[in-house]
Each structure stands twice: as structure tokens, then as C-alpha cells.
Design brief:
- The structure is a homodimer of 329-residue chains.
- By secondary structure, the first copy, chain A, is of the alpha/beta class.
- The first copy, chain A, folds into two domains: 221 residues, Rossmann fold (3-Layer(aba) Sandwich); 91 residues, 3-Layer(aba) Sandwich (Rossmann fold), CATH 3.40.50.1100.
- Chain A is built from 14 helices and nine strands.
- In chain A, the strands form two sheets. Chain A has a five-stranded parallel β-sheet, with helices on both faces.
- In chain A, helix 12 packs across helix 13.
- Chain A is globular.
- The model of chain A has no long low-confidence stretch (mean pLDDT 95).
- At the A-B interface, helix 12 and helix 14 of A face helix 12 and helix 14 of B.
């Protein structure tokens, strides 16, 4: 595996840096989910992670890996979503400044949350301004380090700590062979978990799950080379829609992952409702696609157990109410 | 403490029986909650427990403590709520029959869930039938053991395992002195936690939290003797409304607990919304009253940290949508 951007040793080192700061999320079960899925279902609820998503792991890993004098100058990130909150939180906990570049039409709640974590939010106009130029100029002027959302070794290493936990927790539950379904955008979480498990629990096979119509990773894996999405808009699961897999994440996924799966928006909403009813956790649409696949793709999944990562829970109340409507009162 | 119905040794023995079967729920935090409360807030989310509430602990404890030949005949319980599901689940996991006596006008979902856990649900007409008589006849005929909802030693011991976990987790978080707010109905959970912590973490002071207008425990503690509620109906937090504290739980609470607190239905709904937004956990109204007190009674709470137990998450979607409406979109 020496061709990859990182090794398991990098994930182990990230786990050491994360210890005491990141939550070890539990592995949840419900007999009701088992019945729907036709096999035992284990859910890794990263929505219970700090900031409500796994992104806190990668952000902490990246920031904690910087040289102290570099880190002290601060970090910068481009994001209006979970990555923004993860970076803002990790920076605050490290006592360093964070600049988050967001489009000016980002939801007010997300801007407010990112600011509440202590970050400086810089808004840009998507139509008239070049965010990369704004970011590069600020980074240059202040000496800020860029924290990429997925295609960076220390970010992948941080997300991979989820895989170390799953490997341990699955063994404790007596599960040595199972498909591990992971909500997949650019592939940071998916590739990190795949690397960790290939080393620690080779019977656990990682498979990326994406929204239907935005399955660039599944198509890339099938083709053996990177494929792009035709469009970026129109999915309720927009938090995990990316143009294409990362240059660093794709080779890892290509070598280690099983075939990708895709689910509809309605299946994602229904999985959010099941997570509410049966696990009492809050999942966002993009964070529910892996559970949706576990519940709705039983013929495409192998083995008598399946593990699904719920990657985040940052959903606005209106969208959540929509998910609950499907199950009535 | 020898006057009490149980001792810490009983809680420790229950913890041994529960090990590997009951979830050790985490202790969650959010800087947003800290800001609202004006101190550090730690939440013990028993909504993430099996069956969605702490009741699984007491049920498991009671059933596992029966003599094997007695246990094999089965158990019986009166409940249309969390206790029903806890008993049904624990009985199923022990491979024994469970009979749950419910009013015929109980919500269809709760009846269905209890049946789905494998229990035999016996419905009675609240207006024309005597549930105690029905239950006693069935118990007699089949040799079923009654599992009480709170006023039984092994049930209190099981709920008390929550307190052993809180004591350990608070110490890990560096909290040695704090009010521990517990959603309180008959006092099984409150008295169990109080006993555990009096032994393991004497700086943690348990305080019961009830719905306003149904604060029989708070008034009983203040009076030094048992007081009843005037009425049983009309609270959204009906899951924790009981006529009066238990004969076994009251002496424990009276000796070990601080003054009770009470919150309004609106405060409970608002706390459900904060749990959704900040912790990504699903709380039911009665399960949210302790968090509501942590967030809204800052002048009545002592110390720079507070621990709130979220005792359950079994709420129907319509009620949940109502809680979320308060925070808009």
C-alpha cells in the first residue's frame, strides 16, 4: 500500500493526536432495523461527533499535525457546511484563528454556527468573485494554512480513525465479515476507513454510498478511472455531492473498496425517519444515505451483518420535519 | 444507608448483570449549550439506550435477578410507555415470555412496538375493567413475575447503573462537583443515581426535575413526607407524571437529593429542540425536562458544571415537529 497518500501508521498517529478531543462514537443497533434490512445492522453515528459530523476528526488531525509555529498563524478553509464547522471548532480548541470562506448566499444558520465556533467568516459573491483568489490572497497575507475538505493526507488520516473504531467495535460485537457502507462525497471518510480496516479488519469491506444521479465515485470505481458528475445541483443530499473523487482518495478507494451503491432522496429521508424512530439520532440527508442503502439494497449487500456510517446530523428543522412526515404521526 | 431498599452493592451487582447487554451511553457536550446555561453542560443521553430509554436498565436488572426457574415462566408489567418496551425487550433477550397490560386507548404505535419486541399485549378498558385484577389473575394462572416500573429494589438497582457511569465519566471530564439533574417520575432513576453517586462521587448532587404542576417529588422533598399530585393529566411530559413518589424511592431521595426543580411544557419542547440542534439526539418531552432545567434555571443551580440526564427519546413525529417549530427553519 506504499503508493497511497497515507498509511495505517498515519491513521494511528492521527488517533493519538485525536485522543481525548474527539468522541469515540458508539455502535448502535435496533431489532427493527435488522428486520427491515434482513440482516444485523450496526450504525456508527458520527452525527454524535463534535460539531455534528465526522469532519471534526479530519480538521483536528490536519490542524494538530501542523508545525506549532505554522499552526499559530491560523488556518483557512472553503466550505459552507460540515467542514467549515469542523475546522472552526478544531481551530478554536487549538486556540488559533480560522478563516472560513463561504458564499454570501449560504444559509444564515450555517454562517452563524461557524462564527459561533469562533471563526472569521469571509463571504464572497459566487457570481462575481473568485473564491480561490480571495482565499489565496488571505492565506498569503496572513500565513494561513489551507485545510482541504478531503484530498489531503492528514485529513484522510483523521477520518480514518473512524475505521479504527469500527474495526474494534465490530470485533467486540462478533462481526468479522461485513459490508461497511460509508456516505461518500470526495472520499476522505471512505478512503480513510478503507485503509484502517484493510489493516485491522480485512473481512470488513468498505463500499461508498452516494445520491442517485451523483454517483461519481461508484462510476469511477467501475470504470477504473476518475469520472465526473454531470451536474452538482438538485440533490437533497447536497452535503456529499462533489464534482469527482479526489486525486488522493480515488487510488485508495479503487484498491480497497467494493462496488458503490446509490440511493434516492426519498430513501435518504426515510432512513432519517428510521434513525429518529429506532436509534434516536438525528441524521442529515447526506448523512443518511449509507443507512438508506443498508435498509433498501439488501440484494446488493453481502453477508449476515452490515455496518452503516451516519456521517452527520446538521439538518435544518424544516427538512427534518419533511423526513418525519413520511412516517405520519 | 442501611435503611434503604438497596445498597450500592446491589447497583454494582446489577451492573455486572447488565454488562454486555446494556449500552454505556456517552456524556455529550456542546459549547452552545454551555453558553445558554452559563456553565459547562454535560448530557447523559439515555435516549440512546436500547428501546430508547433508561427503562431497559431496570427491566434487565429485575429480570436477570429472578431465580432461573421463576424467570422461565415469564414476566408481566403494567405500562403503555417506556417501561413496557424495556420489559418486553429484556424478556425477549432472556428468551422468556412477557405480558404487558395496556389500556385499549394506548397509542397504536406503542402497542405495535411492544408487540414487535415479542411481548403479549393484553388490552383493557380503562372505564369498565380493573387492570390490577386482570394482571393478578394472569400472573397467578401462569406464574408470571411482576416487574414494577420504579418501586422495586432490583429496578432501582438497574437504573442506578446510570449513576455509576456518570460518576466515572464526570471524573474523566474533570468534574468532581456538580448538580446532576434527573427527569423524575416515580423516582426509580433519580434514587438509583443518587445512591450510586453518594458512594462514588459524593460531590455530585442529584436533583429531580419534574413538569410544572406535577412536582410531587419536589414538594415531597420540601415537606419531608410524601405529597401527591392533584391531577394526572394535562402535561406534555406525561411519561414522567406519577401520582406520588415511591415508598422505596422517596426515603433515598429524601436523604440524598437536593431540592427539586420544575419546568414548563414550553421549556421542555425548547430543550428537545436544543438537543436536536446541538447534540443530534432525539429527546421526548418528559425526557427533556432535566436539560430544560439546566438551560433555564441557571440561578437555581450551583457550581460551574451541570449534568443533565436525557432519559428517553420515544416521541411521536407530530410532537417532535411541534418542538422543532419553535426554532423555525
Amino acid at each position: 500500500m506504499s503508493d497511497f497518500a497515507i498509511s495505517v501508521a498515519d491513521i494511528e498517529a492521527a488517533a493519538d493526536r485525536l485522543a481525548g478531543h474527539i468522541r469515540r462514537t458508539p455502535l448502535l443497533t435496533s431489532p427493527f432495523l435488522d428486520e427491515i434490512a434482513g440482516r444485523r445492522v450496526f450504525v456508527k453515528p458520527e452525527c454524535l461527533q463534535h460539531t455534528g459530523s465526522f469532519k471534526a476528526r479530519g480538521a483536528w488531525s490536519a490542524i494538530s499535525a501542523l508545525e506549532p509555529e505554522v499552526r499559530a498563524k491560523g488556518v483557512i478553509a472553503f466550505s459552507s457546511g460540515n467542514h467549515a464547522q469542523g475546522v472552526a471548532w478544531a481551530a478554536k480548541m487549538h486556540g488559533i484563528p480560522a478563516v472560513i470562506i463561504m458564499p454570501s448566499d449560504a444559509p444564515a444558520l450555517k454562517i452563524a454556527n461557524t462564527r459561533a465556533y469562533g471563526a472569521e467568516v469571509v463571504l464572497y459573491d459566487r457570481l462575481t468573485e473568485d473564491r480561490d483568489k480571495i482565499g489565496a490572497e488571505m492565506a498569503e497575507a496572513r500565513g494561513l494554512s489551507l485545510v482541504k475538505p478531503f484530498d489531503a493526507p492528514m485529513v484522510i488520516a483523521g477520518q480514518g480513525t473512524t475505521g479504527l473504531e469500527i474495526a474494534e467495535q465490530a470485533a467486540e460485537a462478533g462481526v468479522n465479515r461485513a459490508d461497511v457502507l460509508v456516505c461518500c462525497g470526495g472520499g476522505g471518510l471512505t478512503s480513510g476507513i478503507a485503509l484502517a480496516q484493510a489493516d485491522r479488519a480485512p473481512g470488513l469491506r468498505v463500499r461508498p454510498v452516494e445520491p442517485e444521479g451523483f454517483d461519481d465515485v461508484a462510476r469511477s470505481l467501475a470504470a477504473g478511472e476518475i469520472r465526473r458528475n454531470d451536474t452538482m445541483g438538485g440533490s437533497l443530499c447536497d452535503a456529499i455531492v462533489t464534482p469527482q473523487p479526489g486525486d488522493l482518495t480515488f487510488p485508495i478507494m479503487s484498491a480497497l473498496c467494493g462496488p458503490g451503491l446509490a440511493v434516492s432522496d426519498d430513501e435518504a429521508l426515510s432512513a432519517m425517519a428510521e434513525a429518529f424512530l429506532r436509534l434516536k439520532i438525528v441524521a442529515e440527508p447526506g448523512g443518511a444515505v449509507a443507512l438508506a442503502a443498508a435498509l433498501n439494497r439488501k440484494d446488493r449487500i453481502e453477508g449476515d451483518a452490515v455496518i452503516a456510517v451516519v456521517s452527520g446530523g446538521n439538518v435544518d428543522p424544516a427538512m427534518y420535519a419533511r423526513a418525519l412526515e413520511a412516517i405520519g404521526t
